[in-house]
Amino acid sequence: MEKMRNYFRKSLARQFVVLVTTFLFVFVIGAVSVFVYQSSLTTSFEQKKNQIETKMKYAQEIERAFNQAFSDARGYLAFNRKEFKLSIFREQENVQTALDALELVATTKDDTQFILKARQFANYYFVQLVPQAIEAFENGNIQKVLSLSENGGTASIEQFQFQMKTYKNKLTEQLDAEFQQLRNAQTTAQTAFILFIVMILAILITIARIMMKKIGRPLNELAKVAEKIANDEQVVYDMQETIKREDEIGKLANAFKKMLMSIQEKEESLMAHNEELLAQQDELEVQQAELEQALEAMQAREKELKRHNDFINGLSNSLDKQEVLKNIVCNMARVMEADRGMIVLMNDEQTHASFGLSEEGVHQFLTYIYNGLHQRLFEQKRPFMLKRELVPSEKGYHEETMYVHDVFLPVLSNENDVQAILVFSRFGGPFSDEDIQEYVGLTKQISISLQKIALYEQSEQARETVQHILNTVQEGIHFVDRDGHSVMVNKQMVTLLRKETIAELEGASYEQWARGLVEQSDADKKLCDYLRAIIFNGDEEHEPFVYHLPQKRKVMQVYAKPLYRNGERQGTVFVHRDITKQFEVDQMKSEFVSTVSHELRTPLSSVLGFTELMLTKELKPERQKKYLTTIYQEAKRLTALINDFLDVQRMESGKQTYDKKYEDIVSIIESVIETQKVNTKIHQFHFQKETDKTTVLGDRDKLAQVFTNLISNAIKYSPEGGNITVRMYERGNRLCIDVQDEGLGIPEEALPNLFTKFYRVDNSDRRRIGGTGLGLAIVKEIVKAHEGEVSVTSELKKGSTFTVSLPLVTLANAEEEERDNYEKYAHAHVIIVEDDEHLAALLEAELKDSGFRVKHVKEGKEAIALIQNEKPDAVVLDIMLEEHDASGWDVLKALKQNEHLSNIPIIISSALEEREKGMALGASSYLVKPYQPSQLSKMILQMLLNKERQGEIFIPMPKEEAE
């Protein structure tokens, strides 16, 4: 123990470490104790909270199940629907499951009592009350049902609901009590922690006082003794107590005592040395004179170095080429003590700067730069000097003979090419060889500076190119560094931030550029939090953020990408995209869903309602016919809606097909008008035909769909009735059809979006009319597929006019083109897959009479092999082939799965009514037996024509080869 005490007594550092270690030990023990106590409180509370919440969840499930059972029982007794009855007993199982789960977590007497009461009520309700009521209801004894309700049934339910509510309230109160207990315990812990901090501060103060006593006092005594020594006062060293110490202070006191004794002993020796030093002073004065001479030489050198330094600064302080050249020529003139000089870059512009020269002299120098003396620089690439007599224009008022010394210096690039030349003249004296060597070294500095400027200009050009590229991007692009300062933006971002120029945002702080963006958006705090999280917290997992600009009526989406260089994050690139149109489409789709649900449910409700009436009641024949008519009309309405959806889906996927033929538009429109007259009694139809050229190339059914949509819209949106006029006229080489009504009209702002899918004009009158917003989109797609156009003009409260414009053909041209098509495709190769030999012979004869080359095969596998070998232009396929071989469906699937055969048109010829399946598997058309054989040849010819129009090149065989 004594040895340990001596170990610490000999070192202040060890004593300090012991004190600090003791302090840290006490602090850590206390902090850990407080932390453990806090954690235990939190853990205990979480356990109790989770237990109570579990009870609450099961209690709510019990309550929900009982309430659902009550509702289903009332629904069954009210509507006699079987699903309500089944649901009652499903809820009985849910009640029992929830009660079992609650019993597993029950911990209090209240839990046990509630479970007991709930089980008793469940047994009473599900085993006694509900079966009796259902039996009485199904036997038609409504009076007994009412009696069961009045004689305790309703009271028992209300009593249980009150018990349920009381139990849930107790759980809530229990949770509140646990939370209050946690708060009280935390308050106690906080008070203990404050007392612990006060104790720690007291220990720190005690440690500080101990260290001051052990170190400060003896050091102060040593300082006083040292001060007396410095003032040459008599010193009496009396620090016996300090000297006896074994630590660093004691060692310092002993050393100081020995030093003091040594100083006193050597004082006499120093006096002798002083006399010797006085003798040496005279010698030093002599040396001083020599040093002054050296100083003058050094000052001259300093001036020279200053000129060199100015020269270097002139090269490095600017990146402006003209300014650097001016600095070079001026500073070189000072270094060389030249009277005039010039520098010229060997570029296309001959960029230059001069010192002491007139404009005429500069012009003369540039004119003859590649002649005379300068040519020597380009050939030898070494400096040279020239001494010449001054001409009269250079002498001024001097009359005697005078000479000037010119020096020519090349500035060489890294490739040893002359990139600039320097010429300087001096009247005072010649240039030495040492001077020339020095100037050559300076030209190397000039070369480096010129290369740096060239690199800077290249980087500036690259930066400008990048900026131009960014400015062409439609999105707003903004690059900020890790501190939020703006580094690079494009013009779109400048406009978004409401600035005039890009320069206003260069170097702008986060507060400066973000304020304008946040203030004009409707998501100020959320947008600010989004930007801060990415810029300052480095959060790279954020999804794109959408915000609105109400003043500009825009919806913007911003996403961020970090920019790294050598693994270190340099900043963040923000891209602001204008998604206004996409947002509007999403809104229209959402609105479309609600509209469609209404449009589909309305006819379904009518169908179900009238069907239920016909099933449950005996009706007179005329009423049955009326109900069936309504059901039929609503089913047709549903079919039309579904067809609209399917048409849009096919158009968007590019799978919509058109059977185009030469059709007379007049007959199509007259047929549509006759059909639409049935749907209204308050409208008058007028058909004005102002031209005899009414033939177009088109799909009759699809064109009928166009005019059906337009005329039905005219009827729908003129609810007060009036005239509906269809006007047909010729404009140039196009046939125009106007559909005009006298209805509600269309607002001007709605016209640009009128043909957009799901779009409906926002007007209460139109909302009552209904619709899916797909009709006009389908019209536009069909007209576009016929190389036509559709437009609209409208005036509110006065009506609208829709105009369809289609390419016009004459009958003579149509017949000639049809003849050309027959000649062009007459030698196409067709394979018939048919197991009925008589029908196959009939089809083969028809196709050969039409000029086609035909082969017949009976079996599926044989057909696949033949088609793979010969790759025909069309295939006629029967579905019901021989059973032991592949069926027609197998042949169709095999052909469509082969990428080399998948584009061959396939016409299904079958007695089966499975058109939907055939078209879904990729068939081009579907013919149901029996049919006219001539219909088949026309269909194949039309398919080959459409195939060529769609860009798939068809090359018919020459007649000679066909024969």
Structure description:
There is one protein chain. The protein is built from 28 helices and 22 strands. A hairpin with a 4-residue loop joins strand 8 (545-549) and strand 9. By secondary structure, it is α+β, with helices and mostly antiparallel strands. The strands form 5 sheets. Strands 2-1-5-4-3 form a 5-stranded antiparallel β-sheet, with helices on both faces. A 5-stranded antiparallel β-sheet has the order 7-6-10-9-8, sandwiched between helices. The modification 4-aspartylphosphate is found at residue 878. Its EC number is 2.7.13.3. Pfam families: HAMP (PF00672), HATPase_c (PF02518), HisKA (PF00512), PAS_4 (PF08448), Response_reg (PF00072).
Characteristics:
963 residues; alpha+beta; Four Helix Bundle (Hemerythrin (Met), subunit A); Beta-Lactamase; 6 domains; 5-stranded antiparallel beta sheet; 28 helices; 22 strands; disordered C terminus; ATP binding; cell membrane; two-component regulatory system
Instruction: Indicate the CATH class of the largest domain.
Output: Mainly Alpha
Continuous helix count:
28
How are the strands of the largest sheet arranged? 2-1-5-4-3
Report the portion of residues in β strands.
5-15%
Class by helix and strand content? alpha+beta
Shape: flat
Calculate the terminal CA-CA distance, rounded to whole Å.
126 Å
Main sheet summary:
5 strands, antiparallel
CATH architectural type of the largest domain: Up-down Bundle
At the fold tier of CATH, the topology name of the largest domain is Four Helix Bundle (Hemerythrin (Met), subunit A)
Q: What's the Cα radius of gyration?
A: 52 Å
Indicate the low-confidence ranges by residue numbers. Answer: 764-768, 811-824, 952-963
Q: Please tell me the overall pLDDT.
A: 79
Q: Total domains, how many?
A: 6
Catalytic activity: ATP + protein L-histidine = ADP + protein N-phospho-L-histidine
Domain Response regulatory: 829-944
Main location: membrane
Pfam family, one: HisKA
